[in-house]
Amino acid sequence: MKTSYGGTPAIVPNRLKSPVRSARRGLLVFFAFLIPLSILGYVLAMKIADLGVLFLMWTPGLASIFTRLLLREGKADISLLIGGRKTLRTLPFILLLPVIIGLAAYGTAWITGLVEVVTPETSLKASPVIVFVGLLLMQMFAGTALGLIGSAGEELGWRGYMLTRLIDARIPFPILTSGIIWGIWHLPMILAGNYYSGPYPVLSVVLFMITITAFGCIIGRLRLSTGSVWPAVLLHAAWNAIIQDVFDAFTQGKNALLWTGESGILVAIVVVAAALFISRKPLHVKTL
């Protein structure tokens, strides 16, 4: 049995002869685990901050692990193999994409005066430009490496399980659908004011959904085109480290969350443009 996305088929009980039925059952069980785990994660994230957020980020991964164990699906289709040269060739793209998006979106906000540019307190005593470059390089490598701890939890669930099941279940526009679900999963934190909640909550939700859905499409294509979940994990970690810990750190002002950040107007525009540009080429699914 070969999956429609070209990956190694999951091991399923003999009575489940239809891959479509099997995938749909997997999705139902996955969400049955994900929803209560996420509710617990939202509560913990609001009460114990860093550890709670880490648990929340791991809820999709835990849901996928529990689902695989319950349905005896195995782990072959997670695509945990590195993927050789094809995956290694994606590293410049992974590290530079958040930088390019940040420079385009935040740079526009800085130059036009829509937001204030500030230099965060660091141990490096130098000009703002040197501090920015130094912090950027540190987050591109050390920050991304550290961020793997959390991003691995999300990607094992979202792109390591849910996306491929959406494809096998013949859900229309599976990459786009996975991005929308990923965005909805973040909304309780935004509505509670704990995550990129700008001055206009409804607008923040709309813009965040646009940004995260478009970025989810980029990550989804990367995971499928390389045949490995690791590029998705790396890009997720690089985005968090570079955008949140560099560009957001240099940005302040009462309209900062209106124009920048994951619920900002300019970031939404640039990420959508990047997703459309990347989607121009046909998707060639890689099998490991």
TrEMBL record:
Annotated signal sequence range = none
Q: Which residues form the CAAX prenyl protease 2/Lysostaphin resistance protein A-like domain?
A: 140-242
Q: Which residues form a coiled coil?
A: none
Write out the entry's keywords from A to Z: Membrane, Transmembrane, Transmembrane helix
- Name the source's superkingdom: Bacteria
Spans through the membrane: 27-45, 51-71, 91-109, 129-150, 171-196, 202-222, 229-250, 256-278
* Name by which UniProt lists this protein: Type II CAAX endopeptidase family protein
